[in-house]
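User: My instructor asked us to take a sequence, write out its structure as tokens, and then describe one feature of it. I'm not sure where to start. Here is the sequence I was given:
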Amino acid sequence: MKNLGYIAGEITKGKNLSENLLKYGNGMCSMYNGLGFIKMSMNYYTVLDIARDLQNDKDLLNMINRLNELVERFVENDECDDYEAFNELNSFREQIIEIMEVITAYVDRLRIYEHVLNRVEYRFNEVNWITTTIIPT
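Assistant: Let's start with the prediction itself. The structure tokens for your sequence are:
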């Protein structure tokens, strides 16, 4: 990290730009790649944990099996030049995004419904009904 900071300083000063930009780009790619692997491994564990709980959901199990195959292809291939696997992974990601958009729409509607119910529940509160109808002020 300190080395990247030094290289960034050299780039800011305009010294040896062609070499320093290449070093900085490679260093940042390495850091982002490491972070991506850490995030993927932690989220992957969560997905597998959910899959164990939902053994009866065939669609979910098919998606997880497909994800397992893609992960194995990336882990086995050190060069990561498998564009077919990348495109398949990207289409898999887009499918998940579509599913999450539908779920988010339902959650948004339920939150609005809850807000409306919270606003009108006072009218239907038993104590409030008794005091306003039996004992008028």
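For the description part of your assignment, you could build on this observation: The chain has a mean pLDDT of 79. Try explaining in your own words what that tells you about the chain.
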